[in-house]
Fold:
Amino acid sequence: TGVLSHGLREIVTAAEAIARRSPAVLHLEGVNGRSVLETLRWYLDTSSDRDVNGDGLWETSNLWEGAWDNKIAPMFRDTPIDMWVAALRSSDPAEIARFTDAHRRPATTMVEQAAYARAMCAMGRLAASAGDLATAAWADRQATHAITVVRARQWNASTGTYRDWDTTSEALNDADCLD
Structure:
């Protein structure tokens, strides 16, 4: 995690653009000698460090990883948004990292899970079109798992809305999800 986005939406965009073209593009050499398809799979595999609580989903730990600037998020319970903004105005990367580490409060946000599931569905389509059935099956399992967990855990029946999951308190966030 860090100041820059993790790129899920870009993966979806790339996958859809590639799918419209020849699947042969997926076999071209990409990063570090990997094919484009292998590079996308590598990225999704290595991004699993975003799963801070072991539930198989990606958590958001700081302000720039999700859409927390538009709602009341678990991280703002202990550290108001104006403190986050002040810290981010610092041009010192070490200070930003220190503040982030000290005030991190991971949550499983709806916006991240929607992007993750879409990325995995796109990855599954890409892999299938390239003949990589093992990767297609893996991506389909990941997408199905994310959707299953969110439906079971993050639905608030009393309000009829989905809510973000606060991994620190292991409970639904007390604010409706605006995503």
Observations:
- Strands lie at 107-108, 155-156, 161-162, 165-166, 171-172.
- The longest strand covers residues 107-108.
- The chain has a mean pLDDT of 81.
